[in-house]
Amino acid sequence: MRQLDATATAAALPWAPLIEGLAVLCRAHAAGQVACPPRQVLPLRSGGSLLVMPAVGPALAITKLVTVHPENPARGLPTIMGEVVVMDSASGTRLALLDGPTLTARRTAAVSLLAQRLLAPAWAAAPREVLIVGGGVQARVHAEALRALHPGARLWVQGRTRAPDFAAALGIEPLPPGPAAQQARPWDLIVCATTSREPVLAPGVGEAAGLVIGVGAFRHDMVELPPALLRQAQVAVDDPEGARAEAGDLLAAGLCAAAAPPLVSLQDLVLGQRPADDGRPCVFKSVGCARWDLAAAQVAWDQLRAAAS
Q1: R_g (Cα) of the chain, nearest Å
Q2: 3-class DSSP state of 293
Q3: Partner of 39 for a Cys bridge, out of 53, 93, 281, 296, CB 3.0 to 4.6 A?
Q4: Contact 215, 138 (CB under 8 A)
Q5: How many other CB atoms sit within 10 Å of the CB of residue 151?
Q6: Mind listing the pLDDT tens digit for each residue in 117-129?
């Protein structure tokens, strides 16, 4: 069994093949070739959680094991630790062990960029002005993906404690804090990657953007996107089932109520469903699911086999 550390896992997940692998997985899932049950979340000591996320496809099966311990930084340990076990679907043979946080970060950014390709209006398809709100891992990896796939884009980052260091490390332009800075320029793309419990976008900013992507608020009590924006926007999600359970943004806006219209999924977009060109803003909300981990594992395994041949 191949064991890949964080650096090797990232190298096995180049952006273009990863994005295409996600689209291939969506088509396989639509054809009934992929099984992906809801993830299990089990409590651990010290306020920690164990997340177990299996998925099975035509060639591979995976299980992602993730532990989240909010008190770990005080112990000098990472908050999130995990791995993805990759198996042969036909025999159960263990093939590889991938770094969980690295795989999760890169497949999440790839999901966003696939959605951007399918959702953004024509005038924002090649984004020129991009705002990233946040300063953590997801903000950084989204910046790396955007640089690789849209080298002509000008990236700006706005955040609180970690954003200035993050901006300096990547050579990204820091945006001063506050709503006025957000409102000072038009945005082709906005990526929100925070754990905020209140909206991080100023009024009107998201409505004027080409596309708004929310990847940070992953619990029912987190809200980083303004409810007013979501109520008037055309909204798509990566996984409707997960979004109804975890996307605090959508819950706060009433988009998960029983009487609400069905949520458009990333799979729907891949299969050809497109939002109407009616002038409304577009929003994509991502919460993650094991299907995306399976797609990333397939890409990584293909890369490893190609390198060995």
Answers
A1: 19
A2: helix
A3: 53
A4: yes
A5: 7
A6: 999 998 889 999 9
Helices and strands (H, E) in the chain, number of each type? 12, 14
Residue range of the domain that includes 58 = 2-103+291-308
Here the CATH number for the domain that contains residue 39 is 3.30.1780.10
Q: Which residues contact 109 (CB under 8 A, 6 or more apart)?
A: 138, 141, 142, 144, 145
**What is the identity of the amino acid at 140?**
R
The angle that helices 290-308 and 15-30 make with each other, rounded to 10 degrees, is 120
- Shared domain for 87 and 154, answered yes or no, is no
Q: Could you tell me if 145 and 252 lie in one domain?
A: yes
User: DSSP class of residue 220?
Assistant: T
Per-residue pLDDT of 272-308, as tens digits, reads 998 777 888 999 999 999 999 999 999 999 999 999 8
Q: Could you say which DSSP state residue 171 is in?
A: T
Query: Nearest 10 degrees: CA dihedral of 297, 302, 307, 309?
Result: 140
Residues 265 and 296 in one domain: no
Same domain, 49 and 90: yes
Same domain for 35 and 13?
Answer: yes
Give this prediction's pTM: 0.94
Nearest CA to 172 among 209, 129, 201? 129
Asked whether residue 172 falls in the same domain as residue 280, the answer is yes
Q: If we measure between CA atoms, which residue out of 127, 253, 228 comes closest to residue 237?
A: 253
Measured CA to CA, the distance from residue 284 to residue 215 in angstroms comes to 9
Statement to judge: residues 170 and 241 lie in one domain: yes
